[in-house]
# Entry
Amino acid sequence: MTGTDTEAIAAHARQMRRDIVQMVADAGSGHPGGSLSAAEIVSTLYFGVMRHRPDDPAWEGRDRFVLSKGHAAPVLYSALAEAGYFGREQLSTLRKLGSMLQGHPDMRKVPGVEVSTGSLGQGLALANGLALALRLQGNTDSRVYCLLGDGELQEGEVWESAMLSAHYDLGNVIAIIDRNGLQIDGPTSEVMDVSEVGDKFSAFGWFVIGCDGHDVDSLLDAFEKASRHTDGPVAIVAQTMKGKGVSFMENNCDWHGRAPSADECATALGELE
Amino acid sequence: MSDKRATREALGETLLELAAEGRDDIVALDADLAKSTTTAKFAAKYPERFFDVGIAEQNMMGTAAGLAAGGMTPFTGSFAVFATGRAYDQIRNSVCYANLNVKLTPTHAGVTVGPDGGSHQMLEDIALMRVLPNMRVLVPADYRAAKGAIRAAASAQGPFYIRLGRMALPQVHGEDFVFEIGRAYVLREGADVTLAACGVMVERALAAADLLAGEGIAATVIDVSSIKPLDGPTILAAARATGAVVTCEEHSIIGGLGSAVAELLGENAPMILERIGVRDSFGTSGEPEELMRHFGLTAEDVAIAARKAVARKA
Ligand SMILES: Cc1ncc(C[n+]2csc(CCOP(=O)(O)OP(=O)(O)O)c2C)c(N)n1
# Structure
């Protein structure tokens, strides 16, 4: 990637942060914290890594993205709008009656959403299923990217799925852990410690890569390494900060699932200029 | 509307009261939703008797079953959708099959969850829980009834499912109200039609009865908060006296209160029945009241069904 690409990806991430804050404020509810922590991860995927065609969402050669932490829907919706899957005017309809932009992603409503999520812990199994289907259909090019929260790793199903990815040598599965260290009831280390996430995935037979989840070059480098590892699943543990980019939301559990007021929204957008 | 309160608020507060009254056996578990369910209130005062298991509902239910087998009386939180569906086999095999003393008290049931959307709006929980042997199912209509239901479950042996909600509701029961498991409460009497409701729909059934009274239709309104065991005698007496029944629930019309009443009537007194509820669909994002309109769960919708039921008698 050239410097300009990196800058373009970072610019998309900045726009996505503004969208997230504005969308959640317009909706009057939603999840800003975990959406903001994933801005660079999702923008790097959509604007630097994944092969996809916004004008042809069902293109067989596309890479697939699974937002296992479905409450971060705003970051995905913003990326899809930025990429051109649908018009940006849709963003202000988030969470409203009749909107295609449901509180949690709905594959039957939104072009570009591969699977419906929202109940945590289920996305990696869905990703494995997509990956197995690709293998059965002879598609050896497409990859399946799956974004998980670190709190989400407390769900047992994640580890059942992690075992399966390795067992079936799913070299086309790449999980990204948004390691922001917070969940709803407090820091993940205090609620239910998921410590040594990388070691856990290693022990389950995964190839593990660490990176800075807010540094586009670090992310690009991690995805590049992941693409070279094709004989089994890869986990990228991305160090992030919940609420990143908005001072009063940063590293603060209270902003997990709360909408900013009009004033707070204006302050936040000011900081995100 | 300062007297409006959500039934979920009863959870943390009643657990605190019970503990203060000397119930040292009471423990609470949650799955990273302690603030939303209000178990955090209990946790703040009794941290050694509260267990946040993380985002792991199956683990929560299994741990609760173990605590109960060990002589404690666990109350479990989380949202209704995850606390029932996600942990169904643990509820069935670890809790109910063994008839253990676990009290499931999740919150955020129904479409009144609002903008989170269909993935989070549980409309099948009454059905899922009602079908389990040993499980008793309570759907309180207001804050006071929710406190009563939690207290009643705490004093009875065996598994309970108490369905709690997020939306603030007016009180339908008076200060002297005493909650009894297995009892339906006749809140209003009329000769033409019986409105049998639970949860958030009780208030709406009462409002519908007001609307109907203006048109000369007299409705009996029953709060059927105890869905299992069901108060057959009270419901049958009202049904026979009025000759037509409308059930009202913020739940699928399949498997919930409407089904329980249909089973009762079908076996004992087949008669005209209309069911108000969500008609075999998932929820969707929107504001709570807007969704109640969208899914046909307003007082006016109940009145329309009642008029239809009365017309069918002719
Ligand atoms: C099965 C399930 N249980 C509970 C919830 C409620 N919930 C939504 S987000 C969340 C916390 C998520 O924490 P984490 O995975 O760390 O995500 P992030 O901090 O990145 O937002 C919880 C408990 C859910 N959506 N699904």
Remarks:
- Chain A has one domain: 6-271.
- Chain A touches chain B at residues 27-30, 70, 95-99, 101-104, 106, 116-121, 151-152, 154-156, 183-185, 188, 191-192, 194 (CB under 8 Å).
